[in-house]
């Protein structure tokens, strides 16, 4: 599997680039910053983007998704977070700015959908709590999960924003623990980890499984 990451931004957000080795295309997960730099990584690998997939709509994950996608690449997110593109004040429920570039081809997915692009299949798991439409994406055949801001190495995402839901977050974390131990976790921030390590050592997951 082709896998690369762009994390040179003020938030340390991981923008993941993924595709099958046999493909010359790529899916781009959470391009929050510097579209030109992300495109340069793809060009260096001889790949073209065919889809942008968002774990959620916070500006550090989705801020430049529309600018990166341009006219030709669709942007996918859960409908509960698609609201951030059309009515950001209603989505945030507070005055904190969350500027997002317009996405010309904004599409939505639902829990249980499978996104098939660039020779990879990404399952959609709706895991609300951090935001209403937060999702994670287990890769069907590649033993990895793109976990966004649900689970990081040694910690978990916040659930104290105005549009967060702490109870939903706990349910989403319990669902995360149903993933197999061998699955590599590709988080929205920080280093990669795996389910077994987080199950054993992440203090925020103890007692949930």
Give the tally of structural domains. Answer: 1
Order of the strands making up the biggest sheet = 1-2-3-4-5-6
Ranges with pLDDT <50 over ≥5 residues? none
Distance between termini?
30 Å
Task: Report the radius of gyration as a whole number of Å.
Answer: 16 Å
Major sheet, described briefly? 6 strands, mixed
Average pLDDT number: 96
Helix content: 10-25%
Give me the strand/helix succession: EEEHEHHEHHEEEEEEEEHEEH
Named CATH architecture: 4-Layer Sandwich
Q: Which structural class fits the helix and strand makeup?
A: alpha/beta
CATH superfamily: Ribonuclease Z/Hydroxyacylglutathione hydrolase-like
Strand content: 25-35%
Q: How many strand units? A: 15
CATH topology: Metallo-beta-lactamase, Chain A
Helix run count: 7
